[in-house]
Predict the structure of Exodeoxyribonuclease 7 large subunit.
Amino acid sequence: MFFPANQNDVISVATLNRMARDLLESGLPPMWIGGEISNLTLAASGHGYFSLKDSNAQIRCVMFRNKLSQLDFRLSEGMQVELRGTVTLYEARGDYQISVDTLRAAGLGRLYEAFARLKAKLEAEGLFDNQHKQPLPASPRRVGIVTSPAAAALRDVVTTLRRRMPGIEVILYPCQVQGSTAPAQIVSAIHAANRRAEVDVLIVCRGGGSIEDLWAFNDEAVARAIFASKLPVVSGVGHETDFTIADFVADRRAPTPTAAAELVSPSREALQQGLDLTRRQLERALARLLTDKSQQLDYLGRRLQHPGERLRQQQERLTQYRQRLQQRLHTQLQQRQWRLDSLRLRLAQGKPALPRLQQALQQRSQQLHNAVHRQLAQQQLVLGKLEATLLAMNPEAVLARGYAIVQNEAGQVIHSPAQLRDGEAIQLQLAEGRAHARVEQERGTQCQLPF
């Protein structure tokens, strides 16, 4: 190892760093060190750069690609790890660092564990539910920004708003965005914006940084203030890979402050293009309408007539109707007259000779009278014969001569004594009424009828 010969010898910075590196590497053997990963950067070359810290100190670390590729997990911010490496010095910048050979996970880091615990708690309470998300206004007139006046994020947001829509008014609600007092100031700024109600939408933002730098936006009070906000809130904290509790609670999450400004503001160019397109469509529609109306006007103009001409045409048509009506009436009168003359002629030709018909009628009447008397006399003779025959055959006439009709109880006429039984009741039909009797049998077939 090279050392200056005396105190007055001058050496270069590179020589000094080389000497320091040799002392560190030779004086401190490889060792295991535990801590929390912070400020993690995974370079495009495949190397990993980060800080290993505890509550009191931190040291830069480098893990080269050939070592990093052997890990079976992916490094992340806030991860608690244990690593084995050599303490060395990067001569080009004079950075004191650890060259990591082996690394293993030792559990979640303190900050990451607190982040996960709060996230689970608020998610269980429903603070992340989409049903609570408010829609962003399409064309806000005023945009409120909750951030530090010295933050680069403020310049990014204002520049983006001026570029996209210069007419939007910007109102700043200043607060700290880093440090122990930042959460209370962020909450106060959000409450002030809601109390004044002078903006249409609120942007809560800051630039990128380590998990410690962004920790104010993982505060529970900040999350609840965003959730309770009556104004729509857009969170634009850190870079695309950074996620905070504020991102989950906000109505919209933007990956960067610039993206948050783009979310809340309509693009002037897009609006102008849409306006130009609408204007062209309106012009084409108006041109078509004018063309259609012009053609319709020409058509109606050809159909339009002077009132005097219209009256003359109507007068001519009326004269024609009157002439046709008169002609039709004249024709009908002639037809009716011809028919009347024809009927008169037929009536004159068919007129009867009344004296001759009257004489014939009298003759026919006398003949009918004589025929009726002859027919009546003949019918009276026939009737007399029938009456005599009827009288001769009338049973009552027979009964009047002393005969009787014998009937049994069933009303049947008895023709022979054999039809009678001893003690049987019978009826006798006489000329002047009926009588009842009972049969008494003596000898033979003779019977006595007691009355």
Notes: The chain is about 45% helix and 20% strand. The first helix runs from residue 13 to 27. The domain at 134-269 is CATH 3.40.50.2300 (Rossmann fold). Residues 442-451 have pLDDT under 50 and may be disordered.
